Amino acid sequence: PMPSTRPDPGQSPRLAALLALQGLGRLPRLGWLQAGQSQAESVAAHSHLASLLALHLAPELEPPADGPRAAALAALHDGPEALLGDWPALAKELLPAGAKARAEQAAAERLFGPLGSEVLALYAEFAAQASREARLARACDRLALALCRLAYRRGGASGLDHFLPGLRALD
């Protein structure tokens, strides 16, 4: 079972945040479950792949991007899901404008604040898409989705075409 995301009253905020973030390894990406993939990748596995892609692709850009910074941004981009869960595309479409961003910001403050102002600033940079590295991390987020889709297809999965429009829009 996943540990509770509610902090123990005697527990430090840093430990509570780290324990909540540790749960991302067991949190499945709901879109894959909805698409019929019983062995859905976890949020942590997705973020890990996005980070590796950022490290790999940063030197390929002209001029090169800061790979470690882009990887850090990609590593924490889905951190708020430790408190909010993974929201599939349909859930996001049904929310009022700005609701998801506000919820993610509040979750980021609770999770990343105890880890230091630098971590919270990195999340804010990603959320605002305020740098080339943040935009690379966002692209790597989408590329990680594409690679996972490809892996499922190669494993014989079907019914994954609804992911294509978002991937085709990737620039």
What secondary-structure arrangement, pairings included, does this model have?
Blueprint: H1 13-22, H2 30-34, H3 43-57, H4 67-76, H5 81-84, H6 89-94, H7 99-112, H8 117-128, H9 132-154, H10 164-168
Helix pairs in contact: 3-4, 3-9, 4-8, 4-9, 7-8, 8-9
Q: How much of the polypeptide forms β-strand, as a percent range?
A: under 5%
What's the β-strand tally?
A: 0
Estimated radius of gyration: 16 Å
Would you tell me the structural class of the helices and strands? Answer: mainly alpha
What string, H for helix and E for strand, traces the elements in order? Answer: HHHHHHHHHH
- Show unreliable segments: none
- Helix percent reads 55-70%
User: What's the multimeric state?
Assistant: single chain
Q: What's the tally of helices? A: 10
Biggest sheet, open or closed, and with what strands and sense? none
Shape type = globular
Q: Averaged pLDDT, please?
A: 90
Termini Cα gap: 39 Å
In short:
The chain is mostly helical and 171 residues long. Helix content is 61%, strand content 0%. The mean pLDDT is 90.
Describe the structure in your own words:
- The protein contains 10 helices and no strands.
- The longest helix has 23 residues, at 132-154.
- Helix 7 runs antiparallel to helix 8 (117-128).
- The chain starts with 12 loop residues before the first helix and ends with a helix.
- It is mostly helical.
Give short descriptive properties of this protein.
10 helices; about 170 residues; single chain; mainly alpha; globular
